[in-house]
Amino acid sequence: MRKLLFPLSAMVVVLGAQDIHAQTRTTSGRVVGSDGAGLPGVTVLVKGTTLGTATDMDGRYTLAAPATATTLVFSFVGYTSQEARIGDGPINVTLASNPTSLDEAIVVGYGTQERRDLTGSVATVKGDAIANLATPSFAQQLGGRAAGVNVQTPTALLGQTPRIQIRGVNSLTSGTYPLVVVDGQPIFTGSNSLIDGNASSGLADINPNDIESFEVLKDGSATAIYGTRGANGVILITTKKGRKGKATLTYDTYIGAASTLKRYSVLNANDFVTISNEKQRAAAPTATTPLARDYLDANGNPVSTDWQDQIFRVGFQQSHALSVSGATDKTNYFFSAGYTNQKGVIRSNELQRFNLRGNVNADINDWLRVGFNTALSRTQTLGLNVNPNALSGNVVSALALFPNVPVRNEDGTPFVDPASGTIGQGNNSVPISSNYPNIVNALENNISRSVSYRILGSGFLEVEPVKNLLIRSQLSTDTQLEDDFQYYDPRYGDGRNQNGYVYQGFAPSLRWNWQNTASYNTIIANDHKVNAVLGVEYQSTETRYYAASGNNLSDRLLALNGINSGSLLSQNISGDYYGKNGFQSYFGRLNYSFKDRYLLSATLRSDAISSLAPGKQRGWFPGGSLGWRVSEESFFKNLPVATVWTDFKLRGSYARVGNSSLTSNFPYAGSYSAAQYASQSGIAYNQFGNSELQWETSKKEDYGVDLGFFGGRIIFTADYYRNFNDGLILSVPTPPSLGVPNNSYNANVGSIWNKGLELSLTTQNVRNDKFTWTTSANFSTNVNQVTQLANGVPFLLGNYNGNAYTITQVGSSASTLWGYDYQGVNPANGNPIYRVNRNADGTSSLIQGNIATQSYLTYDPTAPGAASTAAAPLSSSDKILLGQTNPKFYGGFDNTFTFAGFDLNVFLRYNFGNSIMNVTRQNTLLNQNFTNNGSEILGRWQSVDNPGDGTTPRVYQGRGGFINQEGNTLSRFVEKGDFVRVQNITLGYTVPARFTNALHLNRLRIYGQVQNLYTFTKYKGVDPEVNLNYGSGVNGNLVSGLDYASNPQQRVFTGGINVSF
Question: Which residues contact 296 (CB under 8 A, 6 or more apart)?
C-alpha cells in the first residue's frame, strides 16, 4: 500500500497555487512510527490550508510555511493524525497506528479488505500490544484484548497451552480450539508433549516479537471460507515485513523476575499438632500417645516448615530479539533471531526458546512476484509431575506434608524415612498417610524434559497476467519433532514402587498445505467496487509417535541416558502410532460495494476430508453478509449531527460452517486392537463403526453496528450473535445383547446453542503535540444451552478421577456443577447439615450427617439438640445444579498515555458469572488421613459454647471423606470465579532525537513493566482463572471449573530496552 501512497501523497500536496505575500519560514523534521522507523508518504499540511508536502523514503520533510502559521497536521493511512505546533527547531513526530482506520487493510481469509468494506465480525489486535511481554506464548496475552475471545491460563506452568474460546462452547466432545493461521499457513496447535506434567504448547514456538498483528474472525461470514475448520473461529497471524527506506537494525531485550501471585494457606506446626491431636481424641478418647508432637532443631526450637517454600521460587527471566528489516522498490525483507530463557515460579519448571525467521518478498518484474516466510525454532520445556494424584505432584505434596518436621537433616540430606522413602516421621507417633515423599527429592532428582524442533515455512509465486487479476500459489509446511524424556528416581515417590522409571518418546509430525487462488479487484464507473477470490486448497497431515520405557533400574546414573538400565522384562514399547488425514477444498468469495454505501459479501466452500466414510466426505458451507453505510447517504450527511457522527454502518451475516476436529483420523470406522484372553494373544473389537458419521455443523448469525464520531476519534462496535451447533458427536447406547464395544457407538445426535452481545469502544480522549490519551475497552456476554443429547441419555456426567463433579443436560449450560446443598453445622453437635428434596409435596427438608457413625439423621433447625430419627444416605438423586462454569460476561480495559517522551499503558481484564468447585479446599480439610490441613479447619466446631465459624464441622480422625463428601461437588466449596485482574502496566521513556542522533541511533526506548500486579477477587483459591485439564482423560468441555492443587499464577517484573539503528 505504501508503494502507492508515497506518489499519491506527493501529488495531493502540490496544491497551494495561491499567492503568498507574507513572509515564509522553513520547517523540517522527521516522522516515524512507534518502532522508530521512518514513514514515507506522510502528508504534512499547514492547518487550515492546502499548503503542504509529503515525507520522503526515510520519513523526512521540509516545508515552507507562512510566518503566521502556528500548527502542522500530520496524517497517514492506518495511523492516527497528529498536530504539532510550529517552533524554532525541527518538528519530529511519532505517529501511532490506528487499528480502527476505515482505510486500513484488514487480513481476512485468503486476502485483505479495507475496514470500511467489512460486513463480518473481525477483531484486530496489533502485535505491539503483546510485544516484550514475559509470557511463553502470545496466546496468553490475547485475553481481554478482543471482544468475544475468552482466554484462560489455568496455571503458571511455562509452556502450557491456554484455553481459547471464541463465542462460547461450540462442542461437547470434539475440539473447540480455533484454527490458527500464520501468514496464510494453518499450523499445529495444542500440547505436543507425550508425558504427564509437561506442557509444550505449539503456540510457544512462535516469537511474539515477530508478530505484526492478529485478526480474529468470529462470525460465520468471516469464517465460512474455512469450511469444516471454521466453527470455533479463526485467528489470523501476520508476521512483520520491512518498511520502505533504509535498512533498520532493531534490538529488543528485557530481564525480569517472577514470583507467585498468591499461595495456599495451610497449618503451621503448632496448629497442626493441635488439630491432629484433637482429631485423635474425637476418634479414640482413651489414646495415651499424642498423634503429633513438636520436632526440635539443633537449637531446641520447634521446627515449622512451609513446604511451599520448597516448590516455589523467584524465577529469573530474560529475552533477546534482534531483527533487520527494510524495503526497496522491488524487495521487502525482515530477518530476526530470538532467544528466551524463563525460569518459572514453580521449581524445576523452565522454558528455553531459540527462534530464527526470514520473510522476503520480491517483485521480479511488473507482473511476477515471489516470496518466502520461514521460521525455525527449538523450544525446551523442563517440567515436573504436577498431577494431583501423583506421589511426586508438587502442590499436593506441599499441602499434605508434615509441617512439624524439617526439610533436611543437619548434614544437608533430605529428611526421609530410609525404610519407606517417605517423609520422615519426626516425633509423630505414626508415619504420614498415603506414602507422601519429601518433595525436595522429586524436584532435585526427577526429570521431565520436552524439546520441540519446528520448521514453519511457506513460499509463494504471484502472477498478474492482466491488470487487477492476481494468480497466487503458496506451498507451506509445518514440520515438528517432539523429543520427550522422563525419569523417576528409584528411591522416592512415583519411582520407588517400580524401582525407578525411565521413558523416551519421539513424536514427528508433518503438515503440507498447498493453496492456489485467483483474485480480481476493480472499481467500475467509480461506484462499483468488486473483489472476487476463487481457490483450491489441499492439505495432508501425518503424525507419529514412538516411545519406549523401562523400570526396575539396575543403575540410577545409567538411566539418565536411556532405558537400558531397566530390566529386560520391563523394557517395552509403550507407544507406536501412525495417523494420516487430509482434505481437498474449493472455495470462492465475492465482495461488492456500491457507492461505498451498500455492501455485499458471499462465500461458498466445499471440503472433502479423508476422516469420514466414502460418500460422507464432502460438504458445502455457504456464507453471506450485507452492510449498509448509512453515513454515506445524502440524507445522513445533511443532518446537523453528521459533523460529529461521521460513520454509521449496519451489517448482518449468516453462514453454515463445520467442526472437523474429530476424535481420531477415522472416527467412523470399526477398529481393533491387540488384546489377551486366557493368556492367549489376539485381536479385540474395540470400536463399533458408523459410516453415517459426519463433522459437526454450526449455523451462525450475526447482527452488528459500527459507529464513528469526530472523524474516528471515537469508534464503537456492537454485535449480537447466535450460534446453533448441530450434529454433535456423542455416544449412543446399545443393548448389551448386541455385543457392541462399550455398549455404544458414536453418532451426530447432539445440539447446543450460544448467544451473546459484544461491545467494543476505542477513543482518542486527548490528542495534541504534548499529550495523548487513548482508551480501548470491550465487553462480551455468552449464554449457552444444550438442546439435545442422544436418545436414552438424559445427561452426561463430567468425571474426574472417577468422580462426577459436573453434569451436562438438556436445558442447562454445558458442564454445570452438580452436587449436594450444604447448609452448615449443627450447633449442638458439630455435624454437617444438608438440604434435600425428598418430600412428596415437593418441599425440601434438612438432614445431618452423624460423623461418629457415618450415618444420616433428620434435623430440625428449631431444636438442633433434639433426638433425631434415621434418614436415608445422600445419593445422586439429592444432587442439584450449583452453578455454571463458563463466564456470563468478560472483557478488557486498556489505557495508553504519552507525554514528553514518556508512555504509560495500563491494561485490565475481567471475568464474571462463573462458578468454581474448589476441590483443593475440600481435600485439604479432610480428616481421613494423617496429613496437614488447610488453615480453614481452625474454624471448626469444638463445643456448644465454641461453635466455630458455623460452616466447618468438628474434626474426627478417619472421617474426612464423610464430613466433606470427598469426590462430590459440595455447595460449601462452590465459589464465584469473578475477578478483575491488573494484567499489565508498562512505563516507558523514549530518548529525544537530539540525543539518539548523536549516538547514531534511530530510536532508544527504556521501559519497566509488571504483569499480574494484582487480582481483585473473592475467590479463596490461589487464582480464579482455573480449569482442571490434567491428562487426556479429562475432557475440558464436560469437566471445567474444577480447581485441584493448581499451581498459582506468577507476578512478573521486567525492565527492558528497545533500540533501533
Answer: 302, 303
